[in-house]
Amino acid sequence: MALPVAEWQGRAARLWAALEPALRERLEAASLQDAVRLGCDVLRSKEEEEAALEQLCHRAPTDKKPEAASWYREQGNREFKRGRYQAALRLYSKVCLEDIARAESRGYPDRLLPKVLLRKAECLLCLGRLQDAQDVLRVLESKIALDGAMTTHLTRLKKLSQLKVKLGEKEKCPEPARGEHGGTQGEPEIWEENSRISGASSSLSLSFDADRGRHLVASQDMVAGQSLVKEEAFVSVLCPGDSLALQDGDTAWDTRATNADLYCHRCLRQLLASVPCQGCSYAKYCSQDCADRAWQQYHRTECPLGALLLTLGVFCHVALRTVLLAGFAEVSRLVEMSHHGDRNLQNPEGSCKPLSEAADAGGGSRGVPGCDSSGRYQSSYQALFHLLPHTEQHSPEHKFLCTLSVVALCKQLQAAGLEAAVLSQESPQQCSKPKTCEKTSEELSPELKTVAEAMLRHVLQLQCNAQAITVMQEMGPGDGAVVDKKPVRLATAFFPVLSLLNHSCCPNTSVSFSGTAATVRAAQPISSGQEVLHCYGPHWCRMRVAERQQLLKQYFFECRCPACLQELESGAKSVVSIRNSFCCPKCQAQMQGEEDTLCCSNEACATSASRDQLSGRLQDLQQQIKKALELLRVGKADQAIKMLLKCQMDAGTFLSPEHLLMGEMEDHLAQVYATLGKWQEAARHLKKSIEIVEMHHGPSSVETGHELFKLAQILFNGFAVSEALSTIQRAEGILSVHFGPQSAQMQELQEMKACLSELPRNILQRT
Ligand SMILES: [Zn+2]
Ligand SMILES: [Zn+2]
Ligand SMILES: [Zn+2]
Ligand SMILES: [Zn+2]
Question: Distance between CA atoms of 280 and 260, rounded to whole angstroms?
C-alpha cells in the first residue's frame, strides 16, 4: 500500500534488469537531480510502460458508483435487524455518503436519504453515541426543512420526534453528561513549549552526535504521562484501507467500509453525514470547510489523479501533497540550495560524520540540520526537507522504481494541464477547468523536474520517516455492551519534530493521535540527561531480536537498545520465545531445542516431537479459533463457546500455559459471554487473559490498559460495583499515561465511574 502496486513494481524491476549496464551504473551513482533527468529519458523511450501504467489505473476506479448504495442499504437493514448496530452503522455510513453524493450530483433530493439517516440516528442511539445521534438528527431536520413535505412521509416525521424524545431521555439518565467544559477531571496538563523546537516541551533539548544523529534528550526529570511533544502533521494522507479492492466471492461489493468512508479525507475526524467531493468517490469530508480547504491546498490537483495515486501508492501521494502544501517557491528554494553547497544536505548528519558546526555551537542547535538561521527547529517544510533521504543506502532497484513513479506522476500532471496549479497558488476557479494537452511524450518542464526531484527525495525519506497515524477502532460484533478497540493504521504522515526521536525496542515514550495531531508522552519516569526514545514498530515484547533486526533494516541501522544487546550478547532466549513455546504433550513441561526435533525439558520424560508437527497443530488451532469467531459474528454464540472451549482443551496439550494464544482464547470467550449478558463468566475469562497480557507486555503497558478497560465495561454491565470501580481506577492509571487525561477512553471511564456512584442505594447493597 505504501509502495506502488505489485504489477508496476514488476515492470520497473524488469525494465531495470534490461537497461544497458552503463546506464544502470550512472543511475546507481546519480544524485536526485540526475536520477530525475535519467528517469525522464528512460520513460520517454518506453511509451509502452506509460500505457501499462494507465492500464493498471483502470483497476483502481475512483469514479462514483450509484448502484452500490442500495446494496449497502439492504445489508445495513439486515445487520440492524440482527441487533448488530456497529456493523449496521458502518454500512449506513456508506449509504449516506453515496446517497448524498447522488442527490447532489443529480440536483434533486434523494427520497431515500431521510430513511437512511433515521436508521443511522437509531444505530447511534443504540450504541449510546448521543452527540453523534444528535448531529445526524440535526442534519435530517435541516434536510426535511429544506425539502418540505414533498419527500417526507408523516411516519418519518413521527419517527424523528420519537428519536428526539429517546435521545432526550438518554441524555438525562442513566448516562451522566460529559463535563461541561471539555475536560472532566484532573488538573490541566503542565505544558511549556520549547523556545528552540516547535511543538516540543521545554524539558527537552535537541542534541546531535556521530552515533545517534539528531536526537532529543531530557533536560529535566519527567514523570510518567508528561507530554513531551505535541505536533500537527506537516502533511498526512488517509490510507485507502484494505477493502478498497473489490472482494471476490458472491457479492460484488465489500461489506466493510473503508477508511475513506469513515474518516475525513483532510482532518481524519470520524465522518457522520459527510460532504463528498463532487469530482471523485474517494475524498469525503467532515464539513464544507474541510472540503474547501482541501480543494484549495491540494485536492484540485489530486482529484483528477485519484486512480494514478492509488496505483502508485501512499508514499507517492504523500510526496505530491508535501510539495503542494509547501508551495513551489519554497520547494524550488530548497532544491536549489541542495544543488549549491548547503552543507547540511550534502553531508546530512551521516551516522559517522558529525557536522563540525554542531560541535562548535556550544550546546545550541545552530548548525543542526533542518534548523533555521536563528537555530530554531520548526515543524516546517525546511525541517522536513532535511530529513535523511539515505540516497546512497537504498537499493538501486528501489531508487529506480521511485524515480519512474515520480516522473510518471509529474508527466501526468503536465498532461492533465495541472502544472499551473502545482507551480502557483491560483484561485480554484482559475484551475477548475484545466486545459489538457495530450502530448504525454513531451519533455517535463524545468519547474516540474524540480518538483519531481523534491518528490523523489520525499519518497525516499518516507522509508525511514513515514509516521503511521493510528486510531482506536472498534472491533468485533460491536453490540455496544463491551467495546473492544484496537489501533488501526489510518494515515501516513510526516512529523518533522517527531522524526527527531530515535528508535528503541524498549522505548520510554508512548505516542497517540487525535485527528492529524500527535502527542508523545513519557511512558515511564525519565531522568534528566536520558535520551527520549520511541519505538518504530518492532517492540521487544512482540518479536524476537532477529525479527526486530530484520524489520529495522529498512531504517538503515542496527538497533543497539538494551533489549537487543541483552538478547544478542547473552544469547539468551527472548521473552517471546520462552512464553510462546510448545509444551510436552505427555507431561506439559517446556519443549526445548533449536533443531527440527524438540525434546521435553523434563529428563525423566524424554518425549520428543517434530517442530513441523507442532507448528502444524498451532496453525490448525488458529483456523479453528477463526471459525469460532465467525460463528460469533453470525450470531451463533452458543456454538462459538463450544468451539472455543474445545480449542482451549486442545491447546492445553501442546502450548505453554503462558502462550499468547491461550490469552487470546480467554479474551474471545469473555467476548462471547458478554454478548450473551453473562457478565460473571465474561469477567472470569477476561481476568485470565489479563494475566497473560500482563506477563507479555508488562502491567503498565497499553495492552494491559485496554484489557482492563474491557474488564471495567463487563463489571459495569454486571453491576459488580466495587470491583468495577477499582478496575476503572487501574485502567485510568495506565491509559492516562499513554493517551492523556482527555482521551476518549478516559472520558468513557469517567462516565462509568460517575454512573456507578449515582446508582440508587438498593442496587449498591444488592451487590
Ligand atoms: Zn475534516
Ligand atoms: Zn475529488
Ligand atoms: Zn532494539
Ligand atoms: Zn514431557
Answer: 12
